[in-house]
Amino acid sequence: MVDLDWKAKMVTPKSPKLSDKSRQSGPPFARAGDLVLASAAATLAYEQYFRLPELSKLLGGRDFPEWKTESLLRPALQGLEITFRFVSIVLSDTRPYANRHEWRRRVEALALHQIELIGAICEEDEGPAPIADLGCASGVLARDRSMSEVWKAPGATTSVVNRTSEGSLLPRLASWHKSEEVAAKIAFAVECHMRRSPFTLGIGEPNLAGKPNLEYDLLCHPADLHALKKTPLDLKNLENQTLFTTHQILECWVFAAREVLRRVEEKIEKTEFQRSAAYCWLLERIWNLLGEIEDLHLLMDPDDFLRLKSQLAIKASESGSAAFCFRSKALLDLTRSTKDLRRRVPQVLGVEVDPTGGPRVQEGAMKLYHRKADPGKIHLLQAFQATEGAVKRFFFGYRELVVISMGSLEAKDQGACDGAYAAAEQPRDQLSQMFLEPPYFPSLDAAKTFLGEYWQYHQTTGLNGSENGDRS
């Protein structure tokens, strides 16, 4: 077994010691209650501007109660469908000073990233999915399906009826000369990333494998979704539609991330640690996607955006808690729940927290890492810490985004003293605290520190000549 007394045998006492803070269940100011939502008026204005009450009804709708994946796949597909609308907005921009080349590249990359995540979600499908198996033996080319086609693969004995969504914007983008290249790339991405899925989306991809089509229109409701494309405020500013659409995509994926997080905890309760790890890695990728969505603001024209900011009266309050992202209830709830994954560490390790503050959880993590007896638990703990990094990267990137878009004064606490940037001064604004706070998983952090020192000790002393050490 791991020799936990090796520290006393070391010639040079270089190993760090556990402090009282590292033995606490969580960072002192990283608790969920410390995240402060913006004022009620600012939150209400945020929700009304982006039409979130109506959007939330579509995101949370349930048309197939027997299908467990619906609650996760629906908001993901709706975020992708809004991205198709965003492609149209970007390519229709007639302003001579707009950065069309970079906008085109970014929205295309955003769509491809979402398709990659949707493919991963479909791979975990637990069925029964609402699909239309349109093989020639049972499929019929309906008269009201003008976007269906029949084809036969070389050497095949049966034909395939491939049906394309009538409500999605992707087939329409494929027929527009400005967007046909983007649409073709998206369609082939769907084909590639759905290879491991039992079905395909049916939004214009080639479907070379002849897979059954998902009932995309019944699941995504694209007509109802695009009915929400108009902003409540009719402002004479082209960046108004950009801001509006960007945040609708963001809210769709925040909704999906909350569902993924629920599944992470559900699989932990069932002790299905490998499945829980798969969902947790998916959560980490969604957090990275959220950062990519927010980065689209960097391409907005500075003068038009600042004029829009004035028109919408977007300004930080003196409390420093009214950054635009803190007006989203869903995003803050996702952040709190993600940070609260630290409470699951003792359950995953199968140990109880020492009421006296002893390093019981840390020792359990060291033994797990060293013995490698349960790889699923190791994968899950690694995914926990990777998700922590994704959360901190998101808020660090958001703070830098605010600085670049609106100036450094908007990114810091208006009530902070002039020495707020001094090394000894603790940051007071929430955005800084989000990425500067201590680790969410101090026991895992300490376990890796001591395990690294353990191997360094054996390397320098030449004890236990086996490369892998004694794992008994």
Automatic annotation (TrEMBL):
GO terms for biological process: defense response; L-tryptophan catabolic process to kynurenine. Signal peptide: none annotated. Pfam families: Hs1pro-1_C, Hs1pro-1_N. One of its GO terms (molecular function) is heme binding. SUPFAM superfamilies: Indolic compounds 2,3-dioxygenase-like. It comes from the Eukaryota. Coiled coil: none annotated. Residues 1-191 form the Nematode resistance protein-like HSPRO1 N-terminal domain. Residues 194-456 form the Hs1pro-1 C-terminal domain. This is Nematode resistance protein-like HSPRO2.
